[in-house]
Known about the structure:
Blueprint: H1 3-29, H2 44-67, H3 73-99, H4 115-118, H5 138-144, H6 149-177, H7 181-207
Helix pairs in contact: 1-3, 2-3, 2-6, 3-7, 6-7
Amino acid sequence: xxxxxxxxxxxxxxxxxxxxxxxxxxxxxxxxxxxxxxxxxxxxxxxxxxxxxxxxxxxxxxxxxxxxxxxxxxxxxxxxxxxxxxxxxxxxxxxxxxxxxxxxxxxxxxxxxxxxxxxxxxxxxxxxxxxxxxxxxxxxxxxxxxxxxxxxxxxxxxxxxxxxxxxxxxxxxxxxxxxxxxxxxxxxxxxxxxxxxxxxxxxxxxxxxxxxxxxxxxx
Length: 219
């Protein structure tokens, strides 16, 4: 990736996060200065989902950037779409958390907001030292940054399929149990988009003659 492309990506990242945050303010505040007394109260599920999904999305963006300009055009196009969508959603959730006056990051183990309804202990990991389902380890991301050609395509697709599958655990739960309609709506959109992207990635991976990593949703 050359310097101009990198600068453009940084600018786009900031722009999309600002757009997302502004959209969240407009959605919750209807264009007015937020009045705490008028804002809908956020439950632990709304806050916890937003905090955890920001972290999850940020790693997806990191994986796209780690692959750099070493992906083939079809995989690179998919990766760019994932990066753009997830940056927009990060901005939206960060905007919500600001309006709720909630921390941007969780103070304890991840996914504890799911415990009461799903029996999740908040410590399931997709691999090695990963804190949430589907998350890649540091070494796995480092390897992604070292590969080229078909190997880069294959490893990126394997990591991102597993990552999306892990994210689905949270988005499907939030679509059911979040108390605020806008949170449920975003979680539903995430679920639909990530299932569609998983199907596309599985097709690309199969064309390369490879199978996905074990799913974090099983076992």
